UniProtKB/TrEMBL annotation:
Keyword tags: Cell membrane, Membrane, Transmembrane, Transmembrane helix
Similarity-based family: Belongs to the DedA family.
Phylogenetic lineage: Bacteria, Bacillati, Cyanobacteriota, Cyanophyceae, Chroococcidiopsidales
Domain VTT: 30-160
Official protein name in the record: SNARE associated Golgi protein-like protein
Subcellular location(s) of the protein: Cell membrane
């Protein structure tokens, strides 16, 4: 996959970055943790402008969030869960993933869109409950954009600083993202248990 990403970015430049980040939102197995550090490394070589690379990544990500948002808005939770359980293995999404993201959105509301844009493994899925919950598209785009700028900027800067060791970013973020995701799930379970105890 790394070679494929490198080829697209090398041949298409900023358009390639935007396209890859768009696809990363549609198909979560494509890792932003590899795309944007590579863009930062390419900028460090003088082949791209770092601000342009970040802008391309942000635009691609935000546009890529819209199909999932509208899928949630028009298809609804039940149909999406059934579809995910049946076909989601091809893009590593299950009905449980949708439930998890919806619980997060129900608890944190619009803040979840901002926060989850910076959490690997949840970034893509948070668009679904935003659509299911009928969140207006303007605040959805605003919160998505702010969260995406922070995430994409961090990854790109890391690649710029690390140079040809940019792949270290993905290696370190992979276990960290699992820990963050586990902590979020545990936190959500604790909140649910406390609410039930209060009732």
């Amino acid at each position: 996959m790394t070679e494929w990403i490198v080829n697209i970015m090398t041949s298409l430049g900023y358009l390639g970055i935007g396209l890859l980040m768009f696809l990363e939102n549609l198909f979560p197995p494509i890792p932003s943790e590899l795309i944007m550090p590579l863009a930062g490394f390419t900028a460090a070589q003088g082949k791209l402008n770092i601000v342009g690379a970040i802008a391309a990544g942000v635009i691609g990500t935000v546009i890529g969030a819209l199909p999932w948002y509208y899928a949630g808005k028009f298809l609804g939770e039940e149909r999406l869960r059934g579809w995910a359980d049946k076909y989601g293995k091809w893009i590593t999404i299950t009905g449980k993933d949708i439930d998890r993201s919806k619980h997060w959105f129900d608890k944190h509301g619009v803040k979840a869109v901002l926060l989850c844009r910076m959490v690997p493994g949840v970034r893509t899925l948070i668009s679904l409950p935003a659509g299911i919950g009928d969140m207006h598209v303007v605040p959805f785009l605003i919160y998505s954009t702010v969260g995406t700028i922070l995430w994409v900027g961090l990854l790109t800067a890391a690649g710029y600083i690390l140079g040809d060791h940019y792949q270290i970013v993905e290696e370190y973020l992979a276990p960290v993202s699992k820990i963050v995701l586990a902590a979020l799930v545990i936190g959500l379970i604790i909140v649910i248990i406390r609410r039930r105890q209060r009732r």
